[in-house]
Batch of 4 targets.
Target 1
Amino acid sequence: MLPKRTCAALAVLAVTAGTLVGAGVANAGQNHGGGDRGPRPAAFERTATYPVFQNRPAGEDAAAQTVAEISATSEDGRTLVYTDAAAKRIGFLDISDAARPKGLGTLSLAALGDAEDEPTSVSVVGPYVLVVVNTSASHTRPSGRLDVISLRTRERVARHDLGGQPDSIAISKDKRYAAVAIENERDEEAAPAGGEEGGLPQAPAGFVRIIDLKDPSPARWTTRAVPLTRADGSALPALVAAGITEPTDPEPEYVSVNSRGQLAVTLQENNGVVLIDLASGRLTKAFGAGTVSLDGIDTAEDGVVDQSGSLTGVPREPDALGWIDDRYLATANEGDWKGGTRGWTVFDSRTGMVAWDAGNTYEHIAARHGLLDDGRSENKGTEPEGLAIAAYGGKRYAFVGSERGNFVAVYDVSRPTRPVFEQVLPTTNGPEGLLPVPSRGLLAVSSEEDDAGAGVRASVSLFRLGGGAPAFPSLVSADGPTGAPIGWGALGALSAVPGRPDELYTVTDAAYSTTRILTVDTGGGPRRGPAVITRELTVKDATGEPADYDAEGIHARPQGGFWLAVEGRTGAGNQLVRLDRNGVTRQVVPLPSDVAAGLGAQGFEGVTATTDRRGHEIVWTALQRPSSTDPAGVVRLGRYDVRAGTWSWYGYRLSTTATAGDWIGLSEITVSGGRLALVERDKLNGPAARVKRIHTVPLPEGPAPEGTLPVLPKTLAHDVLPALRATKGWTQEKLEGLTVAGNGHVYAVTDNDGLDDSTGETVFLDLGRARKVLGGH
């Protein structure tokens, strides 16, 4: 019989390989397991991440905000066009080589209209780029236009008044029609008579505009409006009968067209969907999106990933939608002012009834992959916003993007009423536009969040459908005692597990209010599939209450229990904490006052220990930054003699950086082959990252002479930056965990900060045999 931990790991690998994570209407929110389906199906693998600030006009400040929201491609799939509302322009990328996208410059909308004009969506028809532009002076005076741009010359060849504030655009399969959702969105700071702030109705009402593309000359294209209210502003009976929240203010959000020329439109704030025949402009159906009750989700922003919460009767309020076929359509239920069900739904367009709903499984996918943002738990959770449907090689996929979790979940929707979860694709922050390019086997994801201060920039990510196991995820979690996945993130430390060669311990840091020790099953060296978090242990203070430590280092003691290196908000707050095997605090060792006095917010970052045959235990620690009282560029390595209760100190000389605002410090310490191995890193990420290295120094045989700080000679053992860049994603800043497992392999992990000022992606690395990676004996 297999050990329990191995069975758990195999079960999670089956889920991540796409066995089945889904929910039917009758049992929404339940996971349905399945057996081994044989060889792993083809998966999407990330090929490149292009930061769009690199495509800015000459002379523009690199820190200026620039985003990528909605994107489209030329008909050959080689030129990508994206909207940049923040910078009031559209951008062009050459994606002929999906591994090396190239910036082709931008087109400013100021040159075509007004400096405040914002592109909201984009599409391509033949040689033309269709850009819908919001030109509204205010919420009560909405306006917009359609600019038709030559893809070759980038000159505007036509413009059409849209008569209101536009949101999304869709093109019919035969390219005869374009449809634009004219939202005329509400003012979130205004209140209707007798209503709440941001509530409905707020005139003028939105509608849909259809553009006839038949004429070869875009200047002669004709447009017509499809009203969603009566001429006098009263409600259409069809919307009233469908139970639309406020039918006099429909606010259409997103549009999609099937092969029969049926246009589906979400009314997000009104929790509904309408269907329109494009040829006639006739509204053929309206239905409400309904409500969902959820169990097993995180509903409290308390710094704890606690998936025991519930929501009752929450409106779906769908944002993006897409036709799976000519009958079934899917919605991403982001929510708005009343709702948001943290999932997505398949509707039968003939009846308006729910054919399938994700229940709590979409949020569980986020938790399993370390992408659940606790800071959004009281609001709309993962906020599934984007959705796209496409067939690749005869297999139909649904892509559902999480605005707050920074990922896209991929499903096989060959059977529309029984979607099968396939994989997660990591993105940069705020994935907005999901663009399948089936002709080239690609998926492009454009991101709307851009934070130059944090070094996390908006980007276009490219993924290609291929064979084999993708690089992400490298770490997932098994189900916990409640049946929900073990929630995790902010892993800044690693330790070997005594007596279990293929297991590691890691610990959460101050990103969460309750400190937990997690057990990781590595699978024993290179493996097909990710490592698996199989258990969690809550750390407790001396009174037995859950502890709130900023644990930056962990060492599992062969004699039982743990050492934690706890970083303080000030120097005096730094301490070594000894736990028993149950995670209860048994000893606290403060940092000596003379050392603490010279430290700011960056203190303890790592801990390890040696124990000789007589049980004499020596604890080694690393500080992150130099003390103000020490020589410039020299950071302290602490030696704590447990039996004597005394400290002594050695020095480590840091590398230097010439980048403004950057600094270099230590992130981890471990023992290998008679040497100390340390992680040295800069504060940079993305394309700016430069220093993510492992150095070794001799392991001193005894304490340093009192009052001295001998600098130990360091040797570069391994540059981890190539491995971090090999993921083709946003190069992570915080390489923080490092250890040598009992199986002889060196493992490293990045800290995702609980998705705060981070893409949220965790990279767990097996760097190979310690003899090769770290040297020594």
Target 2
Amino acid sequence: MATAKNRSRKDAVERQLPGWFNEVVGIGMIGFGLMLLLALVSYTPGDLPNWVGYGPDSTPNSPAHNIIGVVGALLAWLQLILFGAASYLLPLGLIWLGVAYAFMEGKLTRRTWFGFVCFILTGACLINVLELLSIWADEIMITHPGGVIGYGVGTLFFEKLLNKTGAVLLLLVAYLIGMIMLTGLNPIQFTKVAFKQFSEWNQKRKDEKSRLREKNSKKAIREAERKARLDERERAKEEVKKEAAEEKAAAKKVKEKEVAAKKAKEEEEIRKNPQVEMDLKEVPKPQIIDAAQRRKPKLEVGAKPFNKKKDKEKGISLATDAFEDYETPGFDLLSYDDSEEEPETNKDELLSVQKTIVDTLKAFGVEVTAGDITRGPTITRYEVYPSIGLRVSRITQLEADLARATRAERINILAPIPGKDTVGIEIANDNKVAVPLRELLQDEAFASAKKRIPLALGKDVYGNTVIADLAAMPHLLVAGATGAGKSVCINSIIASILFKFSPDELRFIMVDPKVVEMQIYGKLPHLVVPVVTDPNKVVAALRWVVNEMEKRYRIFAKCGVRNFDGFNSRPRPEKEEEPVVEEEVTPEEEPEPDPEVIESIARALEDGELGPMADRDEDELDFEDEIPDRIPYIVVIIDELADLMQTAPADVEMNIARIAQKARAAGIHLIIATQTPRADVVTGIIKANIPSRIAFQVSSSLDSRVILDTKGAEKLVGKGDMLYLPPGSAKLERAQGAFVSDEEVEAIVDFCSNQAEQKFEESVQESIEKGGGSDDGGADDVSDADEEIIQKCLEVIQQEQKASTSLLQRRLRLGYTRAARMMDILEDRGIIGPADGAKAREILVRFDD
């Protein structure tokens, strides 16, 4: 009775309310809910006033960053303190009630308000009991993710009373009940109605398909009958066309036989009387050029290719304190045997061979005119002028016949010679003339200022010196078979560098896995570290070169220069010597820090140049703060790449690729030599970044293509005969390599070692020893780029709460080798546990701490 009276009284009150009351209240609830939602979305602790206990110590944001202003910041803070992450349910619930009350003619009953309160409270309790969004709560400076209510009711009451499982089950049931009472939706009834509607729709679709299938079957029968009639007509037409095509093919075949017979007759006439209607090309008078004769160098006592004055005030980044009075070697260290009489050129013999070539070509119907003859140190080039209209491919097809006629050991045909309108036929000399290194070093081209790092390679067929510039290459690949002259070429390159640079201008890192080639240079003061012979330590040496390259680029960025030359030639302020006055600094009058220094350090930290301060030691920071006045070149020489690619192919290839891609502007250059030019040794990545190459004699054209991307090296005669691909050019140059004996190399090394004592870089040596001596492959020697990736790996592991190689591959888009290396580094640092089959690694640290 009382309930009926209350209900009738409530209905009477509602009838007395005006019609616009529901809309006004609903719109007000919607507006208030939107205001709370916007305040929560744009909430930041920096907007809170200082009188709030959870506010920041510094001055509040002015104006406030919150969309609703300071009031919005206070409202959001109050909600977050009370309900935590469940605060977002409060504005959403108010918006839902406002929409239902204003537009859907809903009623705000006690059931609705009870469900609303239960929905919010149980949500806060569930978030706190399940320990969700803890990191988010720390970021916005609230104590509990479920607020004070979630912590007090959920954790302290229900979890203590029912344990975590029972509390979660009870709160989840209460949460669903509150949501049903708030929205008025019946999930079970809704599921039944949805299933019923889906079943009716599915049945209707099946009936429609069956009717359509029946209709299509009748239509298919009629279509098949019509198609059969059309096929019969088409067959009749095809038979007629086939008969016509056969007649046409027979006529065409007869015509082709007639054309072939006519063509054969014309070829027979040309063979009997070749080019009767073509005149031979008018050519200049042939010359005999003897480029094999040695040039008589100036034998002055104490002569040097470079005479430079040392500036003792210059400071170099690598150790240079012991190289102030260093003098470069002189020409007297190189022997020049002029007592032996060189054989004179037998012009009659050269003309006889040329006549043999012309007659042999004429015998095969190829009419040519004799051209110049150039006798080089190793080969003699015979030039011929093809007649007008003659294809040069007809000459190259007769290579074996020309070799037989001239009795040559090996022959090579250049069709045509690059830059000329002649075809060159190269035949090896019976008596080869050596090219002494001293003759090349005394050439004007070697001392030219245009070449920053000149390399004396040899002499070409025309007697011109081949002087390369390592700085323009900027890297070099030398390959060839055993005994073809590769080691002598490396010795001449090193000797060329020693004649120009002192240890404070250029430093060497030599890698010699064979332990036979580079040991003679072990006493050089130019070495950064002793000659590296252990293949396991090479990866650490290359990794140090990569770190040195990145360090130099950071210095260039601080100085505002682009490359190595710009840094060494940058204008420097003149230093005035001032007397040093020592002043005692009392504790009361401490020197104030320079604001410019503080600003520069802050800018470097923002740009990521200094990296994580916790990962750097004091020596590293002191070095980066002190910018050197000048820095030297660094030349890395690897004598045998195949041995390294068998030990650690992935790491060696990756480090070589990084050096070859970026090290040019940093003054770091790479020289790689190998006697096994296979595709798995000289990989595509290495070739793509080393455009300059030198190829000596190889065993097959396949090896030549691996080195030069074209054939030709298999036709060389050995003993220094080489093909040189200069930088920025696709034209191969054939030359005879410079010769330097072991005695001359020892004399140069002894002279350099007597000038100054060796001063190795201890930090570099320790890094290499560490990288080669441990079984982990040098995991502790981590570059700055690897350190950045490790930080990203830690973020991924913290988010996912698990660690595996496949996870890092997917999230960071790393290759398997790189991701596995990152996992090894994290394991060595004690962050993750060892591998356990296919299971994820165990995380040994707490990121909250």
Target 3
Amino acid sequence: MPAVLFHPDHRLWLLRGPGSAYAVRLAEDDSVRHVHWGAVLTADQAAEVAAPVSPAASSFEAVAGADELPAESGARFGPAGLLVRFADGTRGVEWLYEGHDVDGGHLRIRLRDRHYPLHVELHYRVYADSDVIERWTVVENRDRSPVTVLRCDSASWTAPRRARYRMSHLVGGWNSEFQLRRTEVPVAETVLTSRRGLTSHHANPWLAVDDGAACEEHGEVWSTALAWSGSWRVTVHRDPVGRTTWTGGFGHEGLAWSLAPGETLETPVFAGLYTAGGFGAASRAWHAYVRGHVLSHPDETRPVLYNSWEATGFDVDEAGQMALAARAARLGVELFVMDDGWFGARRSERAGLGDWTPDPGRFPAGLGPLAAEVRRLGMRFGLWVEPEMVNPDSDLYRAHPDWVLHMANRGRTEMRHQLVLNLARPDTAAWTHAWLDRLVAEHRIDFLKWDANRPFTEAGWPGHEDPDRLWIEHTRAVYRIMDRLRADHPGLRIEACAGGGGRADLGILARTDQVWASDNTDPVDRIGIQHGFSQLYPAQVMSAWVTDSPNAATGRRTPLRFRFHVAMAGVPGIGGDLTSWTEEELKESAELVAAYKSVRAVIQHGAQHRLRGDGTLTAFQYVRDDDHVVLAWCPTRPFGHGPAPLPLTAVRPDGVYRDLDSGAVHRGAVLLRSGLPLDLPPGDHASALVRLRRIE
């Protein structure tokens, strides 16, 4: 059956996925209204779905039906996704349908304003292998006067009518990102947003809605994710008569964009997913979508890396890095990354940022000898960079103080002694691309850790007639620079970082390979961070380090095995001071790295299942064909109360499974009902890695 169908008698479009359907129709006023999002329907069945009518019929209620892109128009009182003001002061839109186009799984509905030459396209795209629906909006001004765009969202979504609604979303802060929260949706407007110029540590542009009864393995879930790496806003609206909608897109409230005559504005993708299989099935569907339609190199296996930051801080030199590289190679590390401190006058966070040439005092012959030694040891070579920032104490800032975000007659707020370069400026963006391109080419850089260590402040552009557009154009410039680098250097891989997990979203993942989820490497804290991260993002893109004990952030002491087992849930790296590790620790680390390599194909490319056992026992189960990997962690437990066997979910009840390390054989029905016995060491911070293979 075609992915997109049009029912002309009912002016209705139906989009089909493998296990879901999405339907919209044209109302009498030519607005595009939501009809259905859920289980599979035929076009005729969707045509029978009645338009919702408010039970409180009065002159104080909104028009019936939910708009696919709500705009100011008539009796519409909820949050608008499109806010425009024309040159004569008129606001709002009155729709006129102009037609539609279908190209495979891509539907484009063409609309315009009835009076003004403002044209709007609503885009939908579905794939044969996914229930994810991609949506975005294109606005074009064909008038001779500019149009002020006060808000232009990518899409609005509508959940079916239910007795109650629950919302799942991610909150946090620096060192505590991706904390999962599940709360009842209040009868009100709930705004999730970042006003920081980055995706942010404090919220993530993903949310899920259910009827309050969904769990990890069962229940209907409607979830959405915005592919944008700058400021954003998602507004959830539950009205008093029982309807829940949400609208979202780039930019936060209060910004305005002047759309010049002939200019077009295209929004980022706001993707949505329905599943009847609970939160776990929703996550696995998102993971498959990221691999199949977002990542550039989904089939690659991410390497085990070493990063020098926690070992050296800013005290970086050639001899010290070579010593660390030698020890890293002994452990089986495949990628050596030198962090901050290698360039300019960078002795601390106070100076040198922006002067991207190797410090001759620390690297007398440049980076060539270190890169050569790293490769001689059998590893790839990577560098930390922070292209969007500058220290006022730098040659770059002294030469170009106008290149930073700033406003006339306002101070320039420093955070971490940094200011933000305005990459919306073509000259600043061109200079940034040039030095990155030169650096990668001259040293054959394999990997960049792209960091951004502060949000926007004084986000102005003196002399520019439309300064608010920098909020969007800066992020677009970051995308363009990354895209050009990857096109010109096909072997280059990039890790997205913003002081930890401040830039994790589907937009940045379209031009990077992995995300640094948090600066917090404490394994106990990381369990919660990684649980929230997994709601949307697959293990293949989650970078996690094993660092020293006690932990630099929390002071907590944990066993090396526990630290490794937590990091193995994604793409593990090592970030401790290897020169201070004992021979016993180095030997155990090498064994654990080898153990990870034996299972990483399953972890990075398999289906992930979240498990919960007794007390604080949690786990991930990864499945790829007949191979299963279980990583289990028990941070604390009362004396004498070891957890019971861990129930698995992704095994066949009639299957037989062998433990590849112990040789024990387990029946699938027993693993499902009674659980997998775990050989956990005594005490707190216990963990286990189990490899199973189905043999019958």
Target 4
Amino acid sequence: MNLNPHDYPYASKRNVVYGKKGMVATSQPLAAEAGIEVMKKGGNAVDAAIASAASLTVLEPTSNGIGSDAFALVWIKGKLHGLNASGYSPEKMTIEAVKAKGYDAVPQFGMTPVTVPGAPAAWAELADKFGKLPLTESLKPAISYAEEGYPASPTLGAFWKEAAEKFKNTFEGEEFEAWFTAFAPDGHAPEAGTVWKSPDHARTLKEIAETNGESFYRGNLAEKISTHFQKHGGFLSKQDLADYSPEWVDPIKVNYRGYDVWEIPPNGQGLIALMGLNILKNDHFTSKEAVDTYHHQIEAMKLAYSDGLAHITEEKHMNHTVEELLSDKYASKRRENIGEHALDPSPAAPPKGGTVYLATADEEGNMVSFIQSNFMGFGSGIVVPGTGISMQNRGFTFSLDESHVNALKPRKKTFHTIIPGFLSKGSEPVGPFGVMGGYMQPQGHLQVIMSTIDFHLNPQAALDAPRWQWVSGKKILIDPSFPNHIAEALHRKGHHIERALTHGGFGRGQIIWRNPDNGVLAGGTEPRTDGHIAAW
């Protein structure tokens, strides 16, 4: 594993960051520092992850909130643990009930697409099982930012402004008023460099900390949430919240050129990244910047995604097992479909997403890969009045077609986009990695892992590298830094290439690798956002 600086023609001016006692990599500088602050007070990598995650609900509300879902991969004492803190659909949310509201598909905004949020339960569960500090300590930085305010960072300000302007023309009805009160209190979003604060958010975080999450699911906050949903005809109930708990799961993996690449099992889409790597693992790539390398990556991802969209939902509802989809026989069969020209697998067109990802590590060898999201930016647009709780809209991905594998059912977990990743070799951890951003995530995982393993790029260079995104059919979106001669060569192979005007939409990743010889941590952070690495 290459941890040293590496010349790369498209690298940003950022260098790899090194640390020994601890490291936190996030999309927001203040959130990364919050994690290190908690670590210096006696916390470990798990406590740091909780502190950063809670802070991000304040510091990056355009992507996540207290009403988010979450997933985590946690390396503790030589073993990797998986936590699925995605929520299920409400008991009364059925295909018939949604259609009775006049919908032929689950809507993107409003009360209807909201499923039970899992993030507060994830914080409490992680603290109880692996943390050294109580939530009252880990959530202090987040509470402070919410009470005292902070200046909005550049990328955050741009996304916030875009959302506020869109929502002015989209959100109609009393149920959306609390969103504008919370996030556009002066009639507009805070611009970069201006201070935003949320006393409601601070009070809610204090209550979550003091009750170890109980208030959100079985107490005062649960009462406020359920009352708001009942008032406006939503499905989410007090009982749905009370019955929820996160689930510890066994991570899934493929071995790619001697390294184990780990993901959370379905209902998450991490399986897609593993399927793509499995298809490519017997190919030999001599150069990263070669048309055949990009062509094979794209074709493998299209095959993996078309299968993933057809087969992935909550694991107990799947028609094919993870073992079947990750078998060498199946990968070989799918590999036979890759030829000289672009395929058209004709899957459903993936929508955009909004997510935060963070990675942490400490000197004891503990490491956390954590991801948290409202989905599609601010999520449902529903904020529970007086609480600052911004609710996700994960139910949007359910199908109202009863024959579809991801068909809506009560108390079912839907196909989920957010995926934390982890890399190991033999019995040694290499480290956590992730690329947030909706349906870009498994595509980003594949590209970052191949840049690391096949082409020996250090963490920062792997994140700086140009990215592509398969959209649908033969359509491929490339970022502004993508080499023009490669783009033209891919076009000649039948790919429909479109160059994006900005780097938005290509994911925002973080990486921490650990040197097994001396324990030194090496981190990279995304140049496509306000990313930051705090090291100790």
